[in-house]
Amino acid sequence: MKYTYLLAVSFVFLLLSGCMYPQSERTENQISNEEQLAIVQQAVEDYREGEDGLVPIQTKDSDTHIYEKYLIDFKQMQEKGYLSELPGNSFEEGGVYQYTIVNPEDDLQVRLIDLQTTEQLRSVNVRLDVYRQEHTYPAYGQQITDQIYTVDHEKLGLDEPPTVKSPFSQADLPIVMDLDGKLYIDYSYDLNQALEESDNYEEGEDVRHLLVDNTPFVPAYSMPYTVEDGQAVFMEEE
Prior knowledge:
Layout: H1 2-20, H2 33-50, H3 74-79, E1 97-102, E2 109-114, H4 115-132, E3 140-143, E4 148-151, E5 163-165, E6 172-178, E7 183-185, H5 188-197, H6 209-214, E8 225-228, E9 231-234
Antiparallel strand pairs: 1-2, 3-4, 4-6, 5-6, 6-7, 8-9
């Protein structure tokens, strides 16, 4: 009788653990990011070839950040038979990534936006919005360039400067602010690592492509960077 009871309890526990197990960590979602990315990349290329050059993207405003502008519309792909099932790590399937297209009209690349960084940035933005309701200016910290500042964490009631976990290196990346109080992630650390491994760039150009070309991710919520004295620096607007 005792054995039967333990068996029943174990069965219930297994059922509950299956329901409570994070969607992004279930067995069907354990395929690597690279493998899932390759499947979607091929499906998007097949879509473009079969749909007279069109790509399956969600409609966004023209001023949307370049790396969030061309999010993949999986519904279109499924309805037209280019994708049988969605990648298990995608936002649509309860995962932590959004699939986006870089260079849709040229050298099309499918990449990932890490939504964990999105959430970390959003939490700081909520505090900033509250601060702006009571103050004339954003919570500017130290000036980095004529157009970019650190965030004064004390003004926002934070114990230390806000950071975001990098999808590239897992390093803690600073959050910075422009003159309008808009928040961005500072990818200088990741870019400097990339510059140590590659010189595939031209003087004066935006070097963020070094991250896009060599990893599954895009530097979401970033500003343009160029190189000065071998180091990544913010590209100033003229």
